[in-house]
Specification:
The structure holds two protein chains of two kinds. By secondary structure, chain A is an alpha/beta fold. Chain A has nine helices and ten strands. Chain A has a single domain, classed as Rossmann fold (3-Layer(aba) Sandwich). Classes of the chains: A alpha/beta, B mainly alpha.
Chain lengths: 259, 272
Protein backbone atom coordinates (compact mmCIF):
# COMPACT_ATOMS: atom_id res chain seq x y z
CA UNK A 1 0.00 0.00 0.00
CA UNK A 2 1.28 3.43 -0.89
CA UNK A 3 2.22 5.67 2.04
CA UNK A 4 0.36 8.97 2.21
CA UNK A 5 2.54 11.89 1.16
CA UNK A 6 2.45 14.82 3.60
CA UNK A 7 2.44 17.49 0.87
CA UNK A 8 -1.08 16.79 -0.48
CA UNK A 9 -2.75 20.15 0.03
CA UNK A 10 -6.23 19.23 1.20
CA UNK A 11 -7.36 22.85 1.06
CA UNK A 12 -6.29 23.38 -2.54
CA UNK A 13 -8.70 22.03 -5.11
CA UNK A 14 -6.99 21.72 -8.50
CA UNK A 15 -9.54 19.82 -10.59
CA UNK A 16 -13.27 20.24 -10.03
CA UNK A 17 -15.72 18.36 -12.28
CA UNK A 18 -19.46 18.83 -11.88
CA UNK A 19 -22.27 17.00 -13.66
CA UNK A 20 -20.29 15.92 -16.73
CA UNK A 21 -22.35 14.35 -19.47
CA UNK A 22 -20.84 13.01 -22.68
CA UNK A 23 -22.50 10.97 -25.40
CA UNK A 24 -21.24 9.43 -28.62
CA UNK A 25 -24.30 9.03 -30.83
CA UNK A 26 -26.84 7.07 -28.84
CA UNK A 27 -24.25 5.94 -26.24
CA UNK A 28 -24.20 8.09 -23.13
CA UNK A 29 -20.73 7.40 -21.72
CA UNK A 30 -20.67 9.88 -18.84
CA UNK A 31 -23.93 10.51 -17.01
CA UNK A 32 -23.34 13.37 -14.61
CA UNK A 33 -19.82 12.75 -13.32
CA UNK A 34 -18.59 14.92 -10.45
CA UNK A 35 -15.08 14.76 -9.02
CA UNK A 36 -12.64 16.80 -6.92
CA UNK A 37 -8.87 16.34 -7.10
CA UNK A 38 -6.60 18.03 -4.56
CA UNK A 39 -3.19 19.53 -5.23
CA UNK A 40 -0.45 16.88 -5.03
CA UNK A 41 -2.92 14.00 -4.97
CA UNK A 42 -2.69 10.81 -7.07
CA UNK A 43 -6.27 9.84 -7.87
CA UNK A 44 -6.84 6.46 -9.48
CA UNK A 45 -9.95 5.98 -11.60
CA UNK A 46 -11.00 2.36 -11.97
CA UNK A 47 -13.67 1.02 -14.25
CA UNK A 48 -14.51 -1.57 -16.85
CA UNK A 49 -13.31 -1.21 -20.43
CA UNK A 50 -15.50 1.26 -22.28
CA UNK A 51 -16.84 2.82 -19.08
CA UNK A 52 -15.66 6.29 -20.10
CA UNK A 53 -12.45 6.58 -18.07
CA UNK A 54 -10.33 7.73 -21.01
CA UNK A 55 -13.11 10.06 -22.16
CA UNK A 56 -13.03 11.65 -18.71
CA UNK A 57 -9.34 12.58 -18.86
CA UNK A 58 -9.61 13.65 -22.51
CA UNK A 59 -12.30 16.09 -21.39
CA UNK A 60 -10.00 17.36 -18.63
CA UNK A 61 -7.20 17.80 -21.19
CA UNK A 62 -9.55 19.73 -23.49
CA UNK A 63 -9.33 17.11 -26.26
CA UNK A 64 -13.07 16.45 -26.01
CA UNK A 65 -15.83 18.83 -25.04
CA UNK A 66 -18.52 17.68 -22.60
CA UNK A 67 -22.16 17.85 -23.68
CA UNK A 68 -23.11 19.20 -20.27
CA UNK A 69 -21.40 20.01 -17.01
CA UNK A 70 -18.45 22.00 -15.76
CA UNK A 71 -14.69 21.27 -15.89
CA UNK A 72 -12.77 23.68 -13.71
CA UNK A 73 -9.02 23.26 -13.54
CA UNK A 74 -6.85 25.81 -11.72
CA UNK A 75 -10.14 27.68 -11.22
CA UNK A 76 -10.73 28.15 -14.98
CA UNK A 77 -13.55 26.63 -16.97
CA UNK A 78 -11.67 24.59 -19.63
CA UNK A 79 -14.46 24.70 -22.23
CA UNK A 80 -14.46 28.52 -22.15
CA UNK A 81 -10.73 28.96 -22.81
CA UNK A 82 -9.76 30.52 -26.15
CA UNK A 83 -6.89 29.05 -28.21
CA UNK A 84 -4.17 30.97 -26.34
CA UNK A 85 -5.76 30.17 -22.98
CA UNK A 86 -6.01 26.50 -23.89
CA UNK A 87 -2.34 26.43 -24.94
CA UNK A 88 -1.32 28.09 -21.64
CA UNK A 89 -3.46 25.57 -19.75
CA UNK A 90 -1.97 22.64 -21.64
CA UNK A 91 1.55 23.74 -20.75
CA UNK A 92 0.61 22.87 -17.17
CA UNK A 93 -0.73 19.41 -17.90
CA UNK A 94 0.91 16.22 -19.11
CA UNK A 95 -0.95 13.41 -20.82
CA UNK A 96 0.51 9.91 -20.96
CA UNK A 97 -1.30 7.97 -23.67
CA UNK A 98 -2.03 4.27 -23.45
CA UNK A 99 0.14 3.51 -26.49
CA UNK A 100 2.77 6.10 -25.63
CA UNK A 101 1.79 8.03 -28.79
CA UNK A 102 5.43 8.68 -29.69
CA UNK A 103 5.99 10.41 -33.02
CA UNK A 104 7.02 7.52 -35.26
CA UNK A 105 9.07 9.57 -37.69
CA UNK A 106 11.23 11.16 -34.97
CA UNK A 107 13.98 9.83 -32.75
CA UNK A 108 13.55 9.80 -28.97
CA UNK A 109 15.58 13.03 -28.78
CA UNK A 110 13.35 14.72 -31.38
CA UNK A 111 10.23 13.45 -29.59
CA UNK A 112 11.40 15.10 -26.37
CA UNK A 113 12.61 18.28 -28.06
CA UNK A 114 9.36 18.74 -29.97
CA UNK A 115 7.22 20.19 -27.14
CA UNK A 116 10.18 21.87 -25.44
CA UNK A 117 11.48 24.00 -28.32
CA UNK A 118 7.95 25.01 -29.31
CA UNK A 119 6.97 26.11 -25.83
CA UNK A 120 10.28 27.64 -24.71
CA UNK A 121 11.65 29.27 -27.83
CA UNK A 122 14.47 31.18 -26.12
CA UNK A 123 16.34 28.07 -24.94
CA UNK A 124 19.85 27.53 -26.30
CA UNK A 125 20.80 24.23 -27.95
CA UNK A 126 22.78 23.29 -24.85
CA UNK A 127 19.84 23.98 -22.54
CA UNK A 128 17.56 21.87 -24.75
CA UNK A 129 20.10 19.04 -24.78
CA UNK A 130 20.55 19.22 -21.00
CA UNK A 131 16.78 19.14 -20.45
CA UNK A 132 16.41 16.13 -22.76
CA UNK A 133 19.22 14.23 -21.03
CA UNK A 134 17.88 15.10 -17.57
CA UNK A 135 14.38 13.91 -18.30
CA UNK A 136 15.65 10.71 -19.91
CA UNK A 137 17.76 10.10 -16.83
CA UNK A 138 14.71 10.60 -14.61
CA UNK A 139 12.75 7.90 -16.48
CA UNK A 140 15.79 5.62 -16.48
CA UNK A 141 16.39 5.49 -20.23
CA UNK A 142 19.46 7.66 -20.92
CA UNK A 143 20.78 5.27 -23.59
CA UNK A 144 17.70 5.43 -25.79
CA UNK A 145 18.25 9.04 -26.87
CA UNK A 146 19.02 8.30 -30.52
CA UNK A 147 16.66 5.37 -30.97
CA UNK A 148 13.52 5.41 -33.08
CA UNK A 149 10.21 4.56 -31.34
CA UNK A 150 10.03 1.30 -33.34
CA UNK A 151 13.22 0.15 -31.60
CA UNK A 152 11.70 0.51 -28.12
CA UNK A 153 9.73 -2.03 -26.07
CA UNK A 154 6.18 -1.28 -24.86
CA UNK A 155 7.38 -0.26 -21.39
CA UNK A 156 10.14 1.94 -22.83
CA UNK A 157 7.66 3.66 -25.14
CA UNK A 158 5.43 4.45 -22.17
CA UNK A 159 8.35 5.80 -20.18
CA UNK A 160 9.49 7.97 -23.09
CA UNK A 161 5.87 9.13 -23.46
CA UNK A 162 5.92 10.14 -19.78
CA UNK A 163 9.33 11.80 -20.24
CA UNK A 164 7.96 13.85 -23.12
CA UNK A 165 5.28 15.27 -20.84
CA UNK A 166 7.69 15.78 -17.92
CA UNK A 167 10.03 17.93 -19.99
CA UNK A 168 7.53 20.80 -19.62
CA UNK A 169 7.31 20.27 -15.81
CA UNK A 170 3.53 19.78 -15.71
CA UNK A 171 1.48 20.52 -12.61
CA UNK A 172 -1.09 17.88 -13.53
CA UNK A 173 -0.36 14.43 -14.99
CA UNK A 174 -3.06 12.39 -16.69
CA UNK A 175 -2.15 8.73 -17.20
CA UNK A 176 -4.26 6.60 -19.54
CA UNK A 177 -3.76 2.92 -18.66
CA UNK A 178 -0.06 3.29 -17.78
CA UNK A 179 0.48 -0.43 -17.12
CA UNK A 180 -1.79 -1.96 -19.75
CA UNK A 181 -0.14 -4.69 -21.79
CA UNK A 182 3.11 -4.71 -19.78
CA UNK A 183 4.80 -7.53 -17.88
CA UNK A 184 4.62 -7.42 -14.05
CA UNK A 185 8.21 -6.21 -13.61
CA UNK A 186 7.74 -3.34 -16.06
CA UNK A 187 4.42 -2.55 -14.34
CA UNK A 188 6.29 -2.14 -11.05
CA UNK A 189 8.81 0.16 -12.76
CA UNK A 190 6.00 2.29 -14.20
CA UNK A 191 4.29 2.44 -10.78
CA UNK A 192 7.55 3.64 -9.21
CA UNK A 193 7.91 6.21 -11.98
CA UNK A 194 4.39 7.54 -11.33
CA UNK A 195 5.21 7.94 -7.63
CA UNK A 196 8.55 9.54 -8.53
CA UNK A 197 6.75 12.07 -10.75
CA UNK A 198 4.42 12.93 -7.86
CA UNK A 199 7.35 13.28 -5.46
CA UNK A 200 9.88 15.06 -7.69
CA UNK A 201 7.59 17.23 -9.81
CA UNK A 202 4.89 17.86 -7.14
CA UNK A 203 2.40 16.84 -9.80
CA UNK A 204 -1.28 16.17 -9.21
CA UNK A 205 -2.20 13.01 -11.11
CA UNK A 206 -5.22 11.16 -12.39
CA UNK A 207 -4.39 7.56 -13.23
CA UNK A 208 -6.83 5.60 -15.36
CA UNK A 209 -6.38 1.88 -14.93
CA UNK A 210 -8.00 -1.46 -14.25
CA UNK A 211 -4.83 -2.81 -12.68
CA UNK A 212 -5.47 -2.89 -8.93
CA UNK A 213 -1.79 -3.35 -8.13
CA UNK A 214 -1.08 -0.12 -9.97
CA UNK A 215 -4.01 1.50 -8.13
CA UNK A 216 -2.75 0.29 -4.76
CA UNK A 217 0.86 1.29 -5.41
CA UNK A 218 0.23 4.72 -6.90
CA UNK A 219 -3.14 5.99 -5.66
CA UNK A 220 -3.71 8.28 -2.69
CA UNK A 221 -7.40 7.87 -3.39
CA UNK A 222 -9.56 5.78 -5.71
CA UNK A 223 -12.80 6.23 -7.57
CA UNK A 224 -14.75 3.56 -9.45
CA UNK A 225 -16.56 4.62 -12.60
CA UNK A 226 -19.60 2.56 -13.51
CA UNK A 227 -22.71 3.25 -15.57
CA UNK A 228 -21.24 6.68 -16.37
CA UNK A 229 -21.03 7.72 -12.70
CA UNK A 230 -18.64 7.31 -9.80
CA UNK A 231 -20.03 4.62 -7.49
CA UNK A 232 -17.24 4.56 -4.89
CA UNK A 233 -14.65 7.15 -3.83
CA UNK A 234 -12.11 7.10 -1.04
CA UNK A 235 -8.94 5.38 0.05
CA UNK A 236 -8.06 1.91 -1.23
CA UNK A 237 -9.43 0.26 1.95
CA UNK A 238 -12.60 2.38 1.98
CA UNK A 239 -13.41 1.52 -1.61
CA UNK A 240 -12.85 -2.22 -1.34
CA UNK A 241 -14.34 -2.73 2.13
CA UNK A 242 -17.81 -2.37 0.65
CA UNK A 243 -20.38 -4.80 -0.65
CA UNK A 244 -20.59 -3.16 -4.05
CA UNK A 245 -20.54 -5.96 -6.63
CA UNK A 246 -18.25 -4.23 -9.14
CA UNK A 247 -15.73 -3.23 -6.44
CA UNK A 248 -15.73 -6.82 -5.11
CA UNK A 249 -15.29 -8.20 -8.66
CA UNK A 250 -12.30 -5.95 -9.24
CA UNK A 251 -10.75 -6.89 -5.92
CA UNK A 252 -11.39 -10.61 -6.25
CA UNK A 253 -10.01 -10.77 -9.79
CA UNK A 254 -6.80 -8.93 -8.92
CA UNK A 255 -6.08 -10.21 -5.43
CA UNK A 256 -7.94 -13.48 -5.00
CA UNK A 257 -8.50 -15.29 -8.30
CA UNK A 258 -4.94 -14.83 -9.54
CA UNK A 259 -3.17 -15.42 -6.28
CA UNK B 1 -24.64 -3.97 -15.80
CA UNK B 2 -24.77 -3.85 -19.58
CA UNK B 3 -22.03 -4.36 -22.09
CA UNK B 4 -19.48 -1.62 -22.91
CA UNK B 5 -18.67 -1.02 -19.27
CA UNK B 6 -22.21 -0.06 -18.41
CA UNK B 7 -22.62 2.87 -20.78
CA UNK B 8 -26.24 3.72 -21.39
CA UNK B 9 -28.00 3.61 -24.75
CA UNK B 10 -30.07 6.75 -25.03
CA UNK B 11 -32.59 7.37 -27.80
CA UNK B 12 -30.93 9.36 -30.55
CA UNK B 13 -33.17 12.41 -30.42
CA UNK B 14 -31.01 14.45 -32.82
CA UNK B 15 -33.20 15.97 -35.49
CA UNK B 16 -31.95 16.29 -39.07
CA UNK B 17 -32.61 19.33 -41.22
CA UNK B 18 -33.22 17.25 -44.36
CA UNK B 19 -31.91 13.71 -43.87
CA UNK B 20 -28.89 12.21 -42.17
CA UNK B 21 -26.90 11.77 -45.41
CA UNK B 22 -27.73 15.20 -46.86
CA UNK B 23 -26.96 16.90 -43.53
CA UNK B 24 -23.68 14.98 -43.42
CA UNK B 25 -22.81 16.12 -46.96
CA UNK B 26 -23.33 19.81 -46.16
CA UNK B 27 -21.60 19.41 -42.80
CA UNK B 28 -18.64 17.94 -44.73
CA UNK B 29 -18.55 20.98 -47.03
CA UNK B 30 -18.70 23.27 -43.99
CA UNK B 31 -15.83 21.37 -42.33
CA UNK B 32 -13.68 21.54 -45.49
CA UNK B 33 -14.39 25.26 -45.70
CA UNK B 34 -13.30 25.68 -42.05
CA UNK B 35 -10.21 23.55 -42.65
CA UNK B 36 -9.13 25.67 -45.64
CA UNK B 37 -9.95 28.86 -43.68
CA UNK B 38 -7.77 27.67 -40.82
CA UNK B 39 -4.93 26.95 -43.25
CA UNK B 40 -4.98 30.54 -44.60
CA UNK B 41 -5.14 31.89 -41.05
CA UNK B 42 -2.26 29.75 -39.78
CA UNK B 43 -0.01 30.11 -42.84
CA UNK B 44 0.63 33.82 -42.18
CA UNK B 45 0.80 33.60 -38.37
CA UNK B 46 4.16 33.07 -36.65
CA UNK B 47 5.85 30.95 -35.48
CA UNK B 48 6.79 29.34 -38.79
CA UNK B 49 7.88 25.71 -39.13
CA UNK B 50 10.65 26.37 -41.70
CA UNK B 51 12.56 23.16 -41.00
CA UNK B 52 9.47 21.03 -41.48
CA UNK B 53 8.53 22.92 -44.68
CA UNK B 54 11.98 22.23 -46.14
CA UNK B 55 11.76 18.57 -45.12
CA UNK B 56 8.35 18.27 -46.76
CA UNK B 57 9.57 20.05 -49.91
CA UNK B 58 12.36 17.48 -50.10
CA UNK B 59 9.86 14.61 -49.66
CA UNK B 60 7.34 15.99 -52.15
CA UNK B 61 9.79 17.34 -54.72
CA UNK B 62 13.06 15.43 -54.69
CA UNK B 63 11.54 12.05 -53.83
CA UNK B 64 9.09 12.32 -56.73
CA UNK B 65 11.77 13.05 -59.32
CA UNK B 66 12.38 9.47 -60.45
CA UNK B 67 8.72 8.70 -60.99
CA UNK B 68 8.03 12.03 -62.67
CA UNK B 69 11.11 11.69 -64.92
CA UNK B 70 10.13 8.24 -66.05
CA UNK B 71 6.51 9.18 -66.71
CA UNK B 72 7.36 12.46 -68.44
CA UNK B 73 9.99 10.82 -70.64
CA UNK B 74 7.73 7.95 -71.69
CA UNK B 75 4.82 10.33 -72.31
CA UNK B 76 7.02 12.43 -74.59
CA UNK B 77 8.12 9.39 -76.62
CA UNK B 78 4.68 7.78 -76.82
CA UNK B 79 2.87 11.01 -77.70
CA UNK B 80 5.38 11.70 -80.49
CA UNK B 81 5.11 8.14 -81.82
CA UNK B 82 1.31 8.29 -81.83
CA UNK B 83 1.18 11.73 -83.46
CA UNK B 84 3.63 10.98 -86.26
CA UNK B 85 1.38 8.78 -88.51
CA UNK B 86 -1.45 11.35 -88.55
CA UNK B 87 0.89 14.23 -89.37
CA UNK B 88 2.84 12.24 -91.98
CA UNK B 89 -0.43 11.56 -93.86
CA UNK B 90 -0.50 15.31 -94.58
CA UNK B 91 3.28 15.53 -94.99
CA UNK B 92 3.42 17.67 -91.88
CA UNK B 93 5.91 15.82 -89.69
CA UNK B 94 7.90 19.06 -89.46
CA UNK B 95 5.09 20.35 -87.25
CA UNK B 96 5.81 17.66 -84.66
CA UNK B 97 8.01 19.82 -82.38
CA UNK B 98 5.37 22.57 -82.25
CA UNK B 99 2.56 20.09 -81.65
CA UNK B 100 4.51 18.29 -78.92
CA UNK B 101 5.58 21.57 -77.30
CA UNK B 102 2.01 22.88 -77.13
CA UNK B 103 0.57 19.56 -75.94
CA UNK B 104 3.17 18.98 -73.26
CA UNK B 105 3.39 22.51 -71.88
CA UNK B 106 -0.31 23.36 -72.05
CA UNK B 107 -1.86 20.08 -70.94
CA UNK B 108 0.21 16.94 -70.50
CA UNK B 109 2.92 18.12 -68.09
CA UNK B 110 0.57 19.77 -65.54
CA UNK B 111 -2.02 17.02 -65.71
CA UNK B 112 0.37 14.05 -65.61
CA UNK B 113 2.43 15.58 -62.81
CA UNK B 114 -0.69 16.40 -60.81
CA UNK B 115 -2.05 12.87 -61.20
CA UNK B 116 1.26 11.36 -60.15
CA UNK B 117 1.50 13.72 -57.19
CA UNK B 118 -2.09 12.91 -56.21
CA UNK B 119 -1.26 9.20 -56.28
CA UNK B 120 2.13 9.33 -54.63
CA UNK B 121 2.13 12.41 -52.41
CA UNK B 122 -1.61 12.63 -51.68
CA UNK B 123 -1.88 9.03 -50.55
CA UNK B 124 1.31 9.39 -48.51
CA UNK B 125 0.00 12.47 -46.71
CA UNK B 126 -3.43 10.88 -46.14
CA UNK B 127 -1.94 7.68 -44.75
CA UNK B 128 0.71 9.40 -42.61
CA UNK B 129 -1.63 11.90 -40.98
CA UNK B 130 -4.38 9.28 -40.70
CA UNK B 131 -2.00 6.95 -38.92
CA UNK B 132 -0.91 9.77 -36.61
CA UNK B 133 -4.55 10.56 -35.85
CA UNK B 134 -5.61 7.01 -34.97
CA UNK B 135 -2.49 6.35 -32.88
CA UNK B 136 -3.17 9.54 -30.90
CA UNK B 137 0.06 11.23 -32.04
CA UNK B 138 -1.89 14.32 -33.13
CA UNK B 139 -3.69 14.37 -29.76
CA UNK B 140 -0.28 14.11 -28.07
CA UNK B 141 0.88 17.18 -29.99
CA UNK B 142 -2.26 19.07 -28.98
CA UNK B 143 -1.99 18.30 -25.27
CA UNK B 144 1.67 19.32 -25.23
CA UNK B 145 0.59 22.86 -26.15
CA UNK B 146 2.01 22.69 -29.66
CA UNK B 147 0.08 23.35 -32.85
CA UNK B 148 -0.18 20.12 -34.89
CA UNK B 149 -2.17 21.89 -37.60
CA UNK B 150 0.72 24.25 -38.29
CA UNK B 151 3.37 21.54 -38.04
CA UNK B 152 1.58 18.85 -40.05
CA UNK B 153 -0.94 20.53 -42.33
CA UNK B 154 0.49 23.97 -43.14
CA UNK B 155 3.97 22.61 -43.87
CA UNK B 156 2.65 19.88 -46.18
CA UNK B 157 0.25 22.13 -48.10
CA UNK B 158 3.00 24.75 -48.61
CA UNK B 159 5.33 21.99 -49.82
CA UNK B 160 2.88 20.59 -52.38
CA UNK B 161 1.90 24.09 -53.55
CA UNK B 162 5.55 25.02 -54.13
CA UNK B 163 6.88 21.71 -55.42
CA UNK B 164 4.17 20.65 -57.91
CA UNK B 165 4.85 23.70 -60.17
CA UNK B 166 8.58 22.89 -60.14
CA UNK B 167 7.81 19.26 -60.94
CA UNK B 168 5.54 20.40 -63.79
CA UNK B 169 8.38 22.43 -65.36
CA UNK B 170 10.72 19.50 -64.92
CA UNK B 171 8.21 17.02 -66.40
CA UNK B 172 7.71 19.36 -69.36
CA UNK B 173 11.44 19.46 -70.09
CA UNK B 174 11.89 15.71 -69.67
CA UNK B 175 8.85 15.05 -71.87
CA UNK B 176 10.28 17.32 -74.57
CA UNK B 177 13.57 15.49 -74.28
CA UNK B 178 11.83 12.14 -74.79
CA UNK B 179 10.03 13.57 -77.76
CA UNK B 180 13.27 14.94 -79.21
CA UNK B 181 14.94 11.52 -79.00
CA UNK B 182 12.08 10.02 -80.98
CA UNK B 183 12.09 12.80 -83.57
CA UNK B 184 15.87 12.63 -83.81
CA UNK B 185 15.86 8.88 -84.39
CA UNK B 186 13.41 9.34 -87.31
CA UNK B 187 14.39 12.64 -88.90
CA UNK B 188 17.90 13.31 -87.53
CA UNK B 189 16.75 16.75 -86.34
CA UNK B 190 19.30 18.65 -84.27
CA UNK B 191 18.67 19.39 -80.61
CA UNK B 192 18.72 23.17 -81.18
CA UNK B 193 16.40 23.04 -84.16
CA UNK B 194 13.88 20.85 -82.33
CA UNK B 195 13.68 23.04 -79.24
CA UNK B 196 13.71 26.29 -81.27
CA UNK B 197 10.77 25.02 -83.30
CA UNK B 198 8.96 23.74 -80.21
CA UNK B 199 9.33 26.99 -78.25
CA UNK B 200 8.30 29.30 -81.08
CA UNK B 201 4.73 28.00 -80.71
CA UNK B 202 4.67 28.33 -76.92
CA UNK B 203 3.56 31.68 -75.56
CA UNK B 204 4.06 33.33 -72.20
CA UNK B 205 0.36 32.66 -71.51
CA UNK B 206 0.90 28.92 -72.05
CA UNK B 207 3.72 28.75 -69.50
CA UNK B 208 2.08 31.04 -66.94
CA UNK B 209 -1.27 29.22 -67.27
CA UNK B 210 0.54 25.91 -66.75
CA UNK B 211 2.24 27.22 -63.63
CA UNK B 212 -1.00 28.66 -62.24
CA UNK B 213 -2.67 25.31 -62.87
CA UNK B 214 0.20 23.56 -61.11
CA UNK B 215 -0.11 25.84 -58.07
CA UNK B 216 -3.85 25.12 -57.88
CA UNK B 217 -3.28 21.37 -58.30
CA UNK B 218 -0.51 21.35 -55.69
CA UNK B 219 -2.69 23.15 -53.18
CA UNK B 220 -5.62 20.82 -53.93
CA UNK B 221 -3.52 17.67 -53.50
CA UNK B 222 -1.98 18.93 -50.26
CA UNK B 223 -5.17 20.17 -48.65
CA UNK B 224 -7.17 17.09 -49.68
CA UNK B 225 -4.55 14.66 -48.34
CA UNK B 226 -4.23 16.64 -45.12
CA UNK B 227 -7.99 16.96 -44.60
CA UNK B 228 -8.59 13.25 -45.12
CA UNK B 229 -5.68 12.21 -42.90
CA UNK B 230 -6.21 14.80 -40.18
CA UNK B 231 -9.85 13.77 -39.80
CA UNK B 232 -9.32 10.00 -40.11
CA UNK B 233 -11.34 7.86 -37.70
CA UNK B 234 -12.05 4.24 -36.92
CA UNK B 235 -8.61 2.66 -36.60
CA UNK B 236 -6.43 1.16 -39.28
CA UNK B 237 -9.36 0.82 -41.70
CA UNK B 238 -9.78 4.58 -41.36
CA UNK B 239 -6.14 5.10 -42.37
CA UNK B 240 -6.70 3.09 -45.57
CA UNK B 241 -9.88 5.04 -46.26
CA UNK B 242 -8.08 8.35 -45.69
CA UNK B 243 -5.28 7.43 -48.13
CA UNK B 244 -7.77 6.18 -50.71
CA UNK B 245 -10.06 9.21 -50.41
CA UNK B 246 -7.08 11.55 -50.63
CA UNK B 247 -6.17 10.09 -54.04
CA UNK B 248 -9.67 9.72 -55.47
CA UNK B 249 -10.93 13.14 -54.37
CA UNK B 250 -7.79 15.03 -55.36
CA UNK B 251 -7.73 13.38 -58.82
CA UNK B 252 -11.39 14.26 -59.33
CA UNK B 253 -10.77 17.85 -58.22
CA UNK B 254 -7.71 18.13 -60.49
CA UNK B 255 -9.84 17.20 -63.51
CA UNK B 256 -12.57 19.65 -62.48
CA UNK B 257 -9.99 22.41 -62.07
CA UNK B 258 -8.42 21.53 -65.42
CA UNK B 259 -11.78 22.01 -67.16
CA UNK B 260 -12.38 25.37 -65.46
CA UNK B 261 -8.86 26.76 -65.98
CA UNK B 262 -8.76 25.69 -69.65
CA UNK B 263 -12.06 27.50 -70.23
CA UNK B 264 -10.72 30.65 -68.57
CA UNK B 265 -7.42 30.54 -70.47
CA UNK B 266 -9.17 29.95 -73.80
CA UNK B 267 -11.39 32.93 -73.05
CA UNK B 268 -8.38 35.14 -72.27
CA UNK B 269 -6.16 33.95 -75.17
CA UNK B 270 -7.81 35.96 -78.01
CA UNK B 271 -7.85 39.08 -75.84
CA UNK B 272 -4.05 39.16 -75.54
Amino acid sequence: MKEQLPDIDKGNLIICLRGLVKSFGPLQVLQGVSLDVLKGENLVVLGRSGSGKSVLIKIIAGLLAPDEGSVKVFGNEVSQLDFAGLQAYRRKIGFSFQSGALYDSMTVRQNLEFPLVRNKRNLSAKEVNDAVEAVLESVGLPDSINKMPSELSGGQRKRIGIARTLILHPEIMLYDEPTAGLDPITCVEINHLINKVQRDYYATSIIITHDLTCAKETGDSLAILSEGKFIEKGSFNDVFNTNDTLARQFYNYNFTTNK
Amino acid sequence: MGQNGGVKNVPNSKKHLVSASIDEFFLGIYNVHRFIGRFFKEVFMPPYEFKEIIKQCYDVGYRSLVLVSLTGFITGIVFTKQSRPSLSEFGATSWLPSLIGIAIIRALAPLITALIAAGKVGSNIGAELGSMRVTEQIDAMEVSATNPFKFLVVSRVIATTLMVPLLVLYTGLVGMLGSYLNVNSNEATSFTAFFKEAFTSITFLDISASLIKAVVYGFTIGITGCYQGYNATKGTAGVGRAANSAVVISMFLVFMEEIIIVQVVNYIRPLL
